[in-house]
User: Fold these one by one.
Assistant:
Number 1:
Amino acid sequence: MADDSTGKVVTWDLEAVKPPLGHNPQVPWRSHASLAAGGAPEGDKVTDKCRVIVMRFGANANAMGNYHIHHHSDNLYYMLQGTMTAIVGGTRFIVKAGEAIFMPRDVPHATGNFGDEDVYLWEIYNPSTARPEGNDSHPVELPADIPDSKTNQENGVRIWDLKKLNPEFDPNKKDPWRISRILAGGGNPAAPDQVTDKTEVVLQRFAANANTFGSYHVHHESDNIWLVLEGTLSSIIGGKRYETKAGEVIFMPADVPHATGNFTGEEMRAFEIYAPSTWVTGSHDSFPAEMPAEFAKH
């Protein structure tokens, strides 16, 4: 996508971008706001690789959206508020605040709210559903019989409770103050779960009082997106420093070097997405870069 705004860093405060309900009279209980357009006509033209939105479902909607399929795009939600009902591949899943759900491409799905609390969620399509031949979203007939999930993994679905996943720090690592857990490998050979070859999903944990950055590096093809769950993420991106707090998302574009760390007395935890995966070509798209001199002492 030829646009002067591609390649820039963007931070979103998820509470500030929550969309109002009722703007669509046909579906008054459901609304969304587009954050990164991914080639679509609405939203920030920050990238053509993935599409990022937030969605809100009103309380007591007792309704589902349309059952549909994306043939090319993985779909990933992080639940900020409420309890969402999802039908994926003809199976019903329940997803609660603090959980993330991965829905693979080429499997039909629908989402809705049958609770007495608003549902609010952050969502990414990787790659974007906006394609040269048109929008990669196609209606599918809803099955008559919809059983409840027994494992939270039927039909390629994954549900992760991010509050409970807390990898332990390893004092023998090069950077003992940081640890990660790969949830979806995207081809990364170190990942136990290769549910998708397109999207790499990681839970990051940085110790309090680390007072340092990790290595400065660049991904030439992969956008990098961090949703901060706890604490404050410090980043150097393209030679500028950013601070991203809990409840905010920072978008780090492909081909711009960056490093991340923690300079506070509080632990930092974040949900990190590579879109596409840094392993999508079969080799690792991560290369060292020279840290700007003013930050090198860290």
Number 2:
Amino acid sequence: MNWFIYILVISFFLPGCFAATIVRGTTEPIRFTSEPPGALVSVGGGQSCETPCTMTFKRNASLLAQYVQDGCENGTVSIYPTMSGVGVIMGGVIDHALGSTNTLQPNPAHLVMRCGQAAKEKSVDPTQTKLEQLNELRDQGYLTPEEYQQKRTEILSEM
């Protein structure tokens, strides 16, 4: 008789233990889009695709999607797991550990890329940056005129 009660109690509670895992699964497809389309999206683990596209990831993983397209400024989108309300009610500890209670956000992962002249305007010339920093050091009195001229010549010779 005790075994019957034990089996009855287990059979009542067991289905709810993995409910989110059974219903939602432990992976989720993420849609990647970009403006303009055609960017190569790379995510850790070697997965990549050309936008618009979809890749599937574990629900409990944080990801960094890197977007690259010729003539455009490269960009990244962070994708992170957030707690889903259904998982808290149905899932319990095991579902949470498996990631079934999570939803990956943002989905879709969208990036507006700066392309053409806009990308060129934003790009920073490292030589110009070094010369500006050198001018600031001279203006603040940290460099003598001789040190400034010597360092300026070095920077310009690297071009």
